[in-house]
Every structure is written in C-alpha cells, then in structure tokens.
From TrEMBL:
GO terms for molecular function: exonuclease activity; RNA binding. The keyword Hydrolase applies. This is REXO5 exonuclease. Residues 471-545, 566-644 form the RRM domain. The keyword Hydrolase applies. GO terms for cellular component: nucleus. Keywords: Exonuclease, Hydrolase, Nuclease, RNA-binding.
C-alpha cells in the first residue's frame, strides 16, 4: 500500500555489525525525515518515512548479544517480532552516543519514581530564569520590534548613526517609516578586503523574507587592495578585474530596493553597514539576539548548525558565501521570533557549544596520539561528539521526545540510577505516554545485582562453552588403521572444519570434529549418522553434557527464527569458486535475493560454504530440494535450512577462536556465582520479554520499533551489542 511504511536492510553476512554512528543515522532519519540534514541511512532504507506513526527505541540497559543468545529460548516473543537483526558495536557511553551531542535532557522523577523527560521538562524553569536570553527578553513570545536594537544599543555596538563621529559622508537608506511587527525582514551580508583605506566592500548580498536572493554583486574597491582575505571572502584579484560596480552604485540600489519600513537582519551587521558606509535605523543583529553572558557572541556557523540544522561556511568551499550567510542570519531571526525566547533557551546553546569544542579536542587528540599509547585512557574517554542532538531538533519542530527508565541522563550525558523503579512501573508509564509522543526511548534493566562485571565474564564463558559443544560432533567407531584423509574429506563436505582429532580413550578409534558454523555440525549429524565412512558404519553425535540436553529444542527454535526465513545453507563448494561464479551457478534459482560467501576473518580466504537468501520462503524450500545432490564443478553439494542469522557469523568465529585467559580458581568462582543467580535471571528475562511484547502490541501501525542490547565496553572487557528492528504493520507484525 502506498501509505504503509516498510524497512529494507541487507544485513546477511559479516558486514552486519552496525556502528553507533550508523544507528544514530537511522534514528535521525526516522525521526526527522529530510529536515535538519537527515538522510536515508547508508545501511538500510525506510520507505514512506513521512507516514511513520512514531519511533520507539527500547534499551535493555547493560545487556549484550551474549544475553540474547544465552537466554534465547526465554526471549520467546522478542525473537519472533522483528525481521531485522544486527550486531551493534559497543560504546563506552551508550546513551550519549545514541542521543547525540548536546542531549540536554534533565530527567525528572515522577510520583511513581520513573525517570521521565519530554520537551516540556527538558530544562527546568528555575534554570531557564538564569539564561541570558530569558533575562534579556523575558519568557514570552513577542513581535519582531521587540528584538530590534535600540539607539543606545546601536551606539554601544558601533553601528553607524547619523551625526556620529566617523559617519560623515555616510548615505542613509531613508527607511524612516514607523516599524510594526509585520514590517518586512531582509537579510544582509558583505565580504570585505583590506585596502589602503581600511575595510572595503568587495561583495554584497541581500535576501528577502522568503530567502530569495535580491542582490549578489561584486564591488570594485576605491583604494589599492592590500589583502583580498580570500580564505574568508572567497574574493581573488582575478574575480575583481572585470568588475565596474562601485560602492556608490550599491548604495543607490539598496536605497531603491528597501521599503521604508524595512528591518535589516545580519550577524554583526555593524561591520557590514560600516563597510557599506550606510545608515539604517532598524536592525536585528543575530550575534546579539542569541545572547550570551559577559558580552560573548556565538558564531554564525555554530548557530546555523545548532538551531537550524544547516551547515554553512564549509571548509571545502573557498571563502564564505554572503548569500548563504545572509539567509542563515534571516532564518535565525525568524526562528527566534516565531518560537520565542523560552524555546531558544531550551536549546541550551552553551552546552552544545561546549560539546562541539570537546569534539574538536577529542579529534585533535586522536590525530596527535602517539603510537604505543595504552588503550586504557582511550576507553575512559567519551566518544567523539560531532553531531547536534536530533532530540533537540525534534523539539524545534514541536515534537515531544519521551524518555522513560531507571537510567536517566544528567546534563553531562552520564547515567544515574533510580533503583526504586521497577520494569513493571516503566511499562505502565510507557503504555500511557508512548501514544502521545512521536519519539520515545524506553529503558528497561535487569537490576544492578545482575550487571556486575564478574557475571558478564561467567556468562561469556557459558555461552562460549555451549557454542563449542554445538559446533562439535563425535564420529565412530572406525577400524584401527582407518584413513583419516577420507574422514576429513567426507565430513568437510558438510562445511568448514576448525579442528579434527582422534579420540584415543575408547576401545575403537573415534574422531572429534569441531566445525566453524552450526549448520555444518547439524548437517553432519543429519546426513552422516549411520553412513559408511572410511569403510566403517559410524554413529555421529554431539557431546552429551548438561548444557546440551536442550540442544534439539535450541536447533529447532533457531531454524524457525524469523530472521532465518527464506535462508538456506549450502556446503561442499570448491574453495576456488568466487562469488561471481556462484552467482552464475545459482542464477537459475527463483527469487534469489542475496548470496553470502563467508571468509576466514584472519586469512580472508573463502570457506567451502555459502548462505542463500530468497525473497519468498517457498522459493527457499524449492531451492533446498533442488540443490541437495547437485554437483558443481565436480563437487557434490549438501544443504539445509540456516540456523545462525547472518550477523552471527563474525561473532561465532570470534567466540570459537577465543580462549579463556583467566586462572582456573577465578573462572570457577565466577561460574559458581553465575549459576547461583541464573535461574532467577531466566525468570527476569522471561518477564522482560513479556513486557516488550505488551509494549509492542500497544503501538500504532507504521511505528518503527528498535530494541537494543547496547553491549558493554569497559576496562573489564568488551561485549558486542545487538539490535532488533522492524516497522509494525496492520496485523501487529514487523513489516519487511
């Protein structure tokens, strides 16, 4: 349907790790569309963004991809609701990296103890009264005449005034009619060069209230040019050679163009009027309008980015564009007049500027960082802050972002715990408040007792151990002098082998084979159990351990995972085949959408298997029947349904190749502590899963929902996060 939104993301394969910047990119576009420099994210696509009913982000505080797959069976609803899943690069300060720089979100404790915030309580009114903008203009909206400079203010800020010393010979615009709140605004900006006379105009731009350019003219200086100031003005000697226009011509044209009640707008407009040698009685100076303490002023470039979401005076351009600057100043004045002082004060521009400076310092440090510096210091640094907060942009558009959770943001962007709140209370508030907001962030937590670093270490080891068992099979018995080469060849047709060893503790020889992918181990169990290999009829089985008792249930649930719909695994490929070769070989398969050819992450070499994703589930079923028994370039293919979603390939490889580095005593101590609380943890995860299901069920159709396990990045270690996302359709499911 034309009005329904849907999401497209080609996330199959090891490229499906998404950075914090890419996540920010998605949320910004979903929230703002093409406004405020938002653009379609580079890694996925939202269709019909303008029809989105809202955006809901659910953050599972201090949880990682480990939690999702350790408690995969407990996350019964979560894994079935969303079609798109991705590994999320962990962050040292996840909330700050999500909200962007300048997230001036000060939480308030509600009567229920829930940390809550919206644009109405972003900045407390007591804080606003101290803001220089409120102190100067009050907190009520006013007309434009309230923001024009008084005669006294013009004198204090070196504006040319009739009869003042140094203004002899200046031309008046003769705009002497009484100003009203409906008087027309005009943006003005000039570029100057240094001459023997001083600053002289070389270019003039004038724009009307709609931002249309009325004048953009090069001007020939009267005196000899000493410095063209090309870096800032963009003016060169060559540009001015053919120019005939003089300052007097510009003065005459401006007098004719401006109506008698015109109000001129500019940034430090006194410099422009001095260079033009003109006097105008009614001006709005945006460098003074956006007031700061102690007489300091914001730069036009910063205000354009922080308030309007526009990039001006870009470094790649040669000099400033006076039309762009005039238009920016005009739009800033219009924003101030239309929104009023309170809205402007709520932007907390001082904090945004501080964040921008911190970003510059952080980037400079990164550039100057000598090789060999310890990474400990880098871990403790906040992430680079290079973007204005899109939640602030939402407020500018009149939308009300909602924040609910145990973890709030103070003005520095750091988390603070509110331990009196339960997930149930947060859910109740979310069910009431989310329908009233276009952008909501809901944060749940398992509780501080489950977030300790030693529990993370124990969890990591349990997941790694179970994964190793699931990747491992035992085969035998074989004859005493069996051919190991034949065994390796036969089992290698199921997929890439990591290790193959002979078990010597048994009466007859067995082999232990550890694969690199889950599908290979399962394929070996399914296709070679009871088969004749190396002259023996063998049995193929997985290790029997306490953790493996639910292995068959786990395999079945993985196979039914919504992300594995339409995906099949193919093994037995010759390693010499390239991706292009495979595309050609499989081109006859109907509705083939994506082919993923895994690589060894150390050597970069292709493995002897691939994954095929089809647009329709039935096409995948048909392909599975067709491929089993195929011979490709002399090699017999084997295939089955996929078990591990594409984003897991890199993660499984890393887990598979990691070795425990801690001492045995410390390891068993951590495992024992985890075992003591794991049963309770399973119950909490099930409740959390139910909360998310209930929240998702309450959302309107066409709502983008993103569930984030942020991951952990601390001095104790790093664990990747996980993201699940989808747009809810009319039937309550996540739309593709």
């Amino acid at each position: 349907q034309e009005t329904s939104c849907h999401l497209s993301a080609a996330l199959l394969g090891e490229d499906s790790e998404i950075s914090q910047d890419q996540l920010y990119e998605l949320l910004k576009y979903a929230a703002l569309g093409k406004c405020h420099n938002a653009a379609q994210p580079s890694w996925c696509r939202i269709y019909h963004q303008s029809h989105l009913a809202g955006v809901v982000v659910v953050i599972l505080h201090e949880m990682s991809q480990l939690h999702f797959y350790r408690f995969y069976l407990q996350f019964k609803h979560l894994r079935k609701m969303f079609r798109h899943r991705f590994t999320l690069a962990p962050s040292t300060n996840f909330p700050l990296s999500l909200y962007g720089e300048g997230a001036n979100l000060k939480p308030q404790n509600t009567p229920q103890g829930v940390t809550s915030s919206s644009s109405e309580c972003i900045t407390k009114s007591s804080d606003l009264q101290c803001d220089p903008i409120i102190q100067r203009y009050g907190d009520k909206k006013q007309g434009l005449t309230s923001y024009t400079l008084t005669l006294k203010e013009q004198k204090e800020n070196d504006y040319p005034i009739e009869g003042s010393p140094g203004c002899q010979g200046y031309i008046s615009t003769e705009c002497d009619q009484q100003r009203t709140d409906s008087s027309p605004l005009f943006g003005l900006d000039c570029e100057m060069c240094l001459t023997a006379k001083g600053n002289e105009v070389t270019r003039v731009s004038l724009v009307d209230a709609r931002g249309q350019c009325l004048l953009n003219e090069l001007v020939k200086p009267e005196s000899t040019v000493l410095n063209y100031r090309t870096r800032f003005s963009g003016i060169t000697r060559k540009m001015l050679l053919p120019v005939k226009t003089r300052l007097s011509d510009i003065q005459t044209r401006l007098k004719k163009m401006l109506p008698h009640d015109a109000v001129l707008v500019g940034h430090s407009l006194n410099s422009d009027l001095q260079a033009l040698e003109m006097i105008h009685p009614s001006v709005i100076d945006t460098s003074l309008l956006f007031a700061r303490n102690e007489g300091r002023r914001f730069k036009l470039k910063f205000l354009a980015k922080a308030v309007l979401g526009k990039e001006i005076q870009c470094e790649q351009k040669l000099g400033h564009d006076p039309t762009e600057d005039a238009r920016a100043a005009l739009e800033l004045a219009q924003f101030f007049i239309e929104q009023g002082p309170t809205k402007v004060a709520e932007l907390n521009l001082e904090m945004l500027l501080t964040a921008e400076k911190l970003a510059e310092v952080s980037q400079n440090k990164a550039v100057l960082q000598p090789q060999g510096c310890g990474c400990q210091e880098q871990l403790n640094e906040a992430p680079p802050l290079s973007k204005p907060c899109f939640l602030d942009c939402l407020q500018v558009t009149g939308q009300k972002p909602l924040l609910l959770g145990r973890q709030g943001l103070d003005s520095s962007g750091l988390c603070q715990s509110n331990l009196s709140t339960s997930n149930k209370q947060i859910l109740q508030r979310a069910l009431e408040d989310v329908p009233l907001s276009k952008f909501s962030i809901i944060q749940f937590s398992l509780g501080p007792e489950y977030l300790a670093s030693h529990l993370h270490a124990g969890l990591h080891e349990k997941v790694r151990s179970k994964l190793t068992d699931m990747l491992t099979i035992y085969a035998g018995p074989f004859e005493e002098n069996f051919c190991m080469k034949s065994v390796k060849k036969e089992f290698g047709r199921c997929g890439p082998i990591q290790s193959l060893t002979v078990v010597t503790e048994t009466f007859q020889p067995y082999v232990c084979i550890q694969y690199e992918v889950l599908e290979a181990a399962q394929l070996a169990v399914e296709s070679l159990n009871g088969a004749e290999v190396a002259g023996s009829c063998i049995k193929v089985q997985r290790p029997v351990t306490a953790a493996m008792l639910d292995c068959n249930v786990m395999i079945k649930e993985l196979e039914l995972d919504v992300e594995n719909e339409g995906v099949i695994y193919v093994a037995g490929l010759k390693k010499s085949l390239t991706e292009t070769d495979l595309q050609e070989e499989f081109s006859q398969l109907k509705d083939l959408e994506t082919l993923f050819l895994p690589k060894d992450l150390q050597s970069g070499k292709h493995r002897n298997c691939c994954f095929l994703k089809f647009q329709k589930t039935q096409s995948a079923v048909d392909a599975l029947e067709a491929i089993n028994g195929w011979t490709m370039k002399g090699s017999k293919l084997r295939s089955r349904n996929a078990l591990a979603p594409g984003h897991l390939w890199r993660w499984i490889w890393q887990m598979n190749h990691s070795n425990g580095k801690q001492g045995k005593h410390l390891f068993y101590e951590k495992m024992e502590q985890l075992s003591d609380c794991e049963q309770d943890l399973r119950k909490k995860v099930k409740k959390l899963d139910h909360h998310i299901k209930k929240l998702y069920g309450s959302l309107q159709s066409n709502t983008l929902c993103v569930v984030l396990f942020p991951g952990v990045n601390s001095t104790h270690g790093s664990q990747s996060g996980l993201g699940l996302m989808g747009i809810k359709d009319d039937e309550g499911r996540s739309a593709c």
